[in-house]
Amino acid sequence: MKRLFRSKTNRRVSGILGGLGVYWGIDPTVFRILYIFLALLVGIFPAILGYILAAIVIPEEGDPDT
Predict the structure, then answer these.
(1) Kindly report the CA angle at 36 between 46 and 3, in degrees rounded to 5?
(2) CA 42 → CA 5, 31, 35, distances in Å?
(3) What whole-number distance in Å separates Cα of residue 16 and Cα of residue 12?
(4) pLDDT per residue over 8-26, tens digit each?
(5) For 10, which of 15, 18, 34, 35 could close a Cys bridge (C-beta 3.0–4.6 Å)?
(6) pTM for the full predicted model
(7) What secondary structure does DSSP assign to 1-66, as a single string?
(8) Which ranges of the chain have pLDDT less than 70?
(9) Which residues are within 8 A (CB) of 6 and not within 5 positions of it... i.e. 6 or more apart?
């Protein structure tokens, strides 16, 4: 079963964008570029707030729940 998680190996801050890359089978660099573009488009504060919320909600790779 395919599950979304925060990557332990492909991380820059908390592994969320690396986990998205693994989940979708796309290079995580693409997600990082899209995240920066989205942050500039929507606003820095909402993008950071969303990232923090995702870091709290999405389990880390290897957690018992994953």
Answers:
(1) 80
(2) 24, 16, 10
(3) 9
(4) 888 788 889 998 998 999 9
(5) 18
(6) 0.78
(7) -----B-SSS-SSSSHHHHHHHHHTS-HHHHHHHHHHHHHHH-HHHHHHHHHHHHHHSPBTT-TT-
(8) 63-66
(9) 14, 15, 16, 18, 19, 55, 58, 59, 60, 61
